[in-house]
Amino acid sequence: FTLVFSFVAAIVVWLVVVITVSPQTTRVIKNVKVTIDETIPSQFGLSVFGEKEFTVDVTVKGKKYQISNASLSADDISVVAVTKDVENAGYYNLQLKAEPGEENASYTISSLSMKSVRVYFDTEITRSFVIEPKVITGDFEVVAEGFSCGNIDISEPVVTLTGPSAQIDRVDKVVAQVELFEPLTTNKSTETPITILDADGKSDFEHISLSKENVVVIIPVLRFKSVETAVTFKNAPELYDTAPLEYTITPDKEEFE
Questions:
Q1: What is residue 158's three-state secondary structure?
Q2: I need a labelling partner for 165 at 20 to 30 A (CA). Which of 37, 75, 107, 129 fits?
Q3: Please, what sign has the CA dihedral across residues 188, 191, 193, 194?
Q4: pLDDT tens for each residue of 159-175
């Protein structure tokens, strides 16, 4: 009995000491999710584009039993990116504000692994563009000699772009590029990615989504045939001199595809 009583008493004394006398200690809680408060930006029609998923490591201070793995996790801490100054489109360095997830928490937050996150805001618009086919060759023609290129077609000639208005307004044209390494002698059909270009031919666009990523470009190849022209006299009267008359034909040949 004395042994059992001593053991239980020791545990009780240890718990009392841990709870009441335990010194303050610190702990780093990793990968706490950052929430971007879009309440104010949304009032100006602004949305977040690009990277929007952030995590931060949070250092907390408290008694050991209060901040242990069993007592405190990343879900118990709230980290918010403050957007009170976001009223126009552009990049913003949003300050991070961390608070315990519950009121009257028994621990305090000492520091964060980073103090701000960089986020891009803009108004979202959607616009449709006709896809232009573009054939890239070296120092040769699209088709070989004796052939001609028909009207190049695209499987789906229109694409819808959705993204920040500042970038959609920069779009000059949308092309489907096909690169050739030798002249064509037969029809060619190939799947190719869609490329967005500005007026300077640059394609450095971010945060734009396309209704389709690829299209099929069809290049018809036609063959030339040259046929000489001739004259046949019809409805000639009887006893007509069958000796040929002198005549000329212009043009003396025709080319067909």
A1: strand
A2: 37
A3: positive
A4: 999 999 999 999 999 99
3-state secondary structure string across 86-135? CCCCEEEEEEEEEEECCCCCCCEEEEECCCEEEEEEECEEEEEEEEEEEE
210-192-150 Cα angle (round to 5):
115
Give me the residue label for tokens 């023609």: 141
pLDDT in tens, 33-65: 999 999 999 999 999 998 889 999 999 988 877
Say if CB 168 and CB 127 are below 8 A apart: yes
Cα dist. 38→46, 47, 84, 175, 225 in Å? Answer: 8, 7, 9, 35, 67
The one-letter amino acid code at 235 reads: N
- For 234, the token pair is 């019809």
Say if residues 180 and 135 touch (Cβ distance below 8 Å). Answer: yes
Beta-strand relationship, 221-223 and 214-219: unpaired
Residue type, 25: T
**Residue 149: both structure tokens together:** 């290129």
Residues 95, 29: Cα–Cα separation, whole Å: 19
Cβ of 195: how many Cβ atoms within 10 Å? 15
Residue 105's region, left for phi above 0, alpha for psi from -120 to 50, else beta, is beta
Dihedral angle sign, alpha carbons of residues 169, 172, 176, 178: negative
The pTM for the full model equals: 0.66
Contact 29, 77 (CB under 8 A): yes
Nearest Cα neighbor of 31 from 82, 74, 61 is 74
